Amino acid sequence: MANIGYIQVVRHCNHFCGFCSNPTTPYEHTLETMRELVDDFVRREYFGVILTGGEPTLHPQLPEICAYAREQGLHVRMITNGWRLADPDFAKAMADAGLQLAHVSVYSVRPEIEEKLRGAAGTLERAFQAVENANRFGIDVNINCVINRLNADHLDEGIRYWIEHHPEVRHFVWNNLDPSMGRAEVNQEEYTPRLAQFEASLFRALTLLHKSGRTFRVEKVPLCYMADFAWASTETRKIVKGEERIVHFLDAKQTVRQTDWEHVYTDVCDACSLRRICGGLFDRGDGYDPAELYPVFVSEDAVVERIIQDPTDPSFPFRNLGAWKRDFGERCRETLEKAKATARLPVVDGPAVGRVTDRAQRLFESKRRTEAKKAAALGVAQEGAEAGPEDAPEER
Ligand code: SF4
What pLDDT, in 10s, does the model give residues 78-112? Predict the structure, then answer.
């Protein structure tokens, strides 16, 4: 399987999004601890790693860990707000270090909305410059967008812009907002969208991308809100292919291994033809309303075939629907048995190497003071402070 893991290399950021689900913590990584996490992915035979945060470009040794991961044979990616990548010297350094793909996150191409969502001015121009720099130095670019209440009605507007001004961008990733953690949890009212608020504009955006030959993925959106493009759902693809995902968090959670892609279902799901391959309603944080779900009646086989026969995705061994059905039936039985034996909790089984150090604690306290002012200026709540572990490991 083409599993891809995540490493949060820092948890602070130079922007201040009111819906950040992974805000500042007092933990830090050294080059040595990040290497241990890369080695963990290599041992598990992962295909690639995504360096993320916070804002990963704020880690002073990002080029070094990027080069190390590449030397170990991983496909190396990064999720960034693009602020530092807008500096051509930094973009070149990352390209020289072996970065293959940058996911640049842009939420809206309306400057006033982007500024409000980012809690900082001038971010849109820098994100555009980051895309140009990456292109110039041979780093592939995807655009990431978190769907939220402020951009829900004009997701397609961004796509029109990208197609016209940056035709070289060929892949887009939509993430519906995770209202269960960090700043997003304490600002649900302001940012968590209703599913119906983005249904039409998401459909228009995906149609534009599809017609123009671009590819895309959508996460945390139940299939009834993207039934025409069900094959592009991240959860559905993972359910169909039996993939897992590991996130090395830089907080008390440390390593989380996700193998279960099913969220919450209601009675209407029993009548739905896509129930077996749908991730359902993202329920963590209680931000979404189960009453918004409705059953759809489209062919499961057609969705599955589209995924397992995708010529751009060689990660699934069975290209044939019959072989998939046998394999899937077996996996469903195993999952059922496991569910009977255990609670549905994420598995934690990786190296816990993120550390609370004196230096990280000082940075954390200073960031918290600055962020309290930014929160007040933006009119949003600041999340509760992440405490260190009760018996913090020694500094290393
Ligand atoms: S009704 Fe339920 S199973 Fe069907 S697409 Fe919606 S969330 Fe998924």
Answer: 999 999 999 999 999 999 999 999 999 999 999 99
Ligand 1 in reach of 279 Cβ (< 6 A): no
The residues pairing with 347 across neighbouring beta strands, listed in sequence order, are 257
* Dist. CA 296 → ligand 1 center (Å): 7
- pLDDT of 315 > 80? The answer is no
**Is residue 130 in a domain?**
yes
Please report, as a single letter, which amino acid is at residue 219: E
Q: Does ligand 1 lie within 6 Å of residue 239's CB atom?
A: no
Residue-wise DSSP of 314-369:
TT-S--SHHHHHHHHHHHHHHHHHHHHHS-S--B--S----EE-HHHHHHHHHHHH
Q: How many domains in the chain?
A: 1
For residue 298, the domain's CATH number is 3.20.20.70
pLDDT exceeds 80 at position 338 = no
129 against 314, higher pLDDT: 129
**Is the distance from the beta carbon of residue 306 to the nearest atom of ligand 1 less than 6 Å?**
no
Residue at 332 is within a domain = no
Q: Distance from the CA of 267 to the center of ligand 1, in angstroms?
A: 10
Domain-located, residue 333: no
| pLDDT tens-digit series, residues 182-207 | 999 999 999 999 999 999 999 999 99
pLDDT band at 337 (very low <50, low <70, confident <90, very high): confident
Pocket test for ligand 1, best of 199, 228, 289, 296 (most atoms within 8 A of CB): 296
Q: Which residues of 21-54 are buried (b: 16+ CB within 10 A; e: fewer)?
A: bbbbbbbbbbeebbbebbebbeeeebebbbbbbb
Choose which residue among 233, 236, 274, 292 to substitute to test ligand 1 binding: the one with the highest number of ligand atoms within 8 A of its C-beta: 274
Contact, 49 vs 77, CB < 8 A? Answer: yes
Domain containing residue 96: 4-315+342-378
pLDDT at residue 62 tops 80: yes
